[in-house]
Design brief:
By secondary structure, this protein is an all-alpha fold. The protein has one domain. Helix 3 packs across helix 13. It comes from Bacillus mesophilum. This is Chromate efflux transporter. One of its GO terms (molecular function) is chromate transmembrane transporter activity. Belongs to the chromate ion transporter (CHR) (TC 2.A.51) family.
Length: 392
């Protein structure tokens, strides 16, 4: 019991620190997670981490949040997943609730430091890509799969692209590596029962299909709000940037809030650390105070937890299969390619606009990759440098 409590406390501390410092969106979060959980703490190996990322790319919901939940589950069961989620998510939920409550006095801030934080994301993702490519795409076939994934993801940007890339890469990996003798055991062991997993999947679908019916019967505002946020979290592929326009369609035309209020929150969501899905906290607060913010946050993230809890224990068993491991060789290489594509667009294209931006990105990359400085120092440096550059 003492060891379990110590593990949960460690998960809370580490995930909260990441929740306070992980700027840059979902792909950058995967870089922060890899640096903290794989490289520094060695809670799982590189292959297991890539498998977890691939699974979370394959199922709907906020991929980076689901990876964080999955890491917590691997470390300390379903309770570890909840603690990891709370630590990583609560800082940005709190920040956006406070922003919504003080909207009139919180609109005077310098955009320069936000640009600096976006440049930090460039350095973080570049470091993650280099490290993962070295381990997951070491030979010619996997380098080729990575290249194909990059080109496809950049040129064909749809909500289904990543899923199709992963499926095709898995098929290629199966045929290329099915006779490879070195099928080493991975450490992706999840202390969660299959019974709990099945209950989670049943709950996911039951809530998804029953909530609209309940909403029609009782027509209470909080049920309507819960239903719309849950459905948004359950049916979106591609992460936070995809769910934002979906939320706008759900709440602006119906009069829950104005277009101006929505856009103000959208800007704030880009400026805080943690997952973009916490934008729901802002919307819920505008609709019904801080209680509405907490309800909206719970509703939009609940399907993410149910899906990862419902699939990860089965994924563990499937990944032990020799043929599946061969397929995962290709999948892992494709994940590297998807990350490289994301480094280019949207991260690079929306961030690096000048020689000064590129120079700062290079400095921050060296701070992370070669000088081995803690990520929080890199984040602070990027924010301060961005503010200074904005004033010059």
């Amino acid at each position: 019991m003492k060891n379990k409590l110590a593990s949960l406390w460690e998960i809370l501390l580490v995930s909260t620190r990441l929740g306070l410092t992980s700027f840059g969106g979902p792909i950058a979060h995967l870089g922060y997670f890899r640096d903290e959980y794989v490289i520094k703490r060695k809670w799982m190996d590189e292959d297991s981490y890539a498998q977890l990322v691939a699974l979370c790319q394959f199922i709907p919901g906020p991929a980076s949040s689901q990876v964080g939940i999955g890491i917590g589950m691997v470390r300390a069961g379903w309770l570890g997943g909840i603690i990891s989620f709370i630590g990583f998510t609560f800082p940005s939920v709190l920040a956006l609730i406070l922003f919504a409550l003080t909207l009139q006095s919180f609109n005077q801030f310098d955009l320069g430091w936000i640009q600096g934080l976006k440049i930090v994301a460039v350095a973080v993702v570049a470091q993650a890509v280099m490290g993962m490519a070295k381990n997951l795409a070491p030979d010619f076939p996997r380098k080729t799969i990575t290249l194909i994934a990059v080109v496809t993801a950049v040129l064909w940007q749809t909500t289904m692209t990543q899923i199709l890339i992963i499926i095709i890469a898995g098929i290629i990996g199966f045929f290329v590596y099915k006779n490879v003798a070195d099928h080493k055991e991975t450490s992706l062991h999840v202390p969660v029962s299959k019974k709990f997993a099945l209950i989670s999947l049943v709950m996911f679908f039951a809530i998804l299909f029953l909530l609209p019916i309940i909403n029609q019967i009782f027509t209470a505002e909080w049920i309507t709000v819960f239903d719309r946020f849950y459905r948004s979290g359950a049916l979106v592929f591609g992460g936070g940037h995809v769910v934002l326009p979906l939320l706008e369609m759900e709440f602006v035309p119906s009069g829950f809030l104005s277009e101006e209020a929505f856009l103000a929150g959208y800007g704030a969501a880009q400026a805080v650390p943690g997952p973009l899905f916490t934008f729901a906290a802002y919307l819920g607060t505008i609709i019904n105070g801080w209680q509405g913010g907490l309800l909206a946050s719970f509703a939009i993230f609940l399907p993410a937890f149910l899906l990862i809890a419902g699939t990860l224990p089965f994924w563990q068993q499937i990944s032990k299969n020799k043929n599946m491991k061969a397929a995962l060789y290709g999948v892992n290489a494709a994940v590297v390619g998807i990350l490289i594509a994301a480094l280019y667009d949207p991260i690079w294209t929306s961030t690096i606009h000048s020689a000064a931006d590129f120079s700062l990105a290079a400095i921050l990359f060296f701070m992370l990759n070669y000088w081995k400085l803690p990520p929080w120092i890199v984040v602070v440096t990027g924010a301060v440098a961005g503010a200074i550059m904005h004033m010059l």
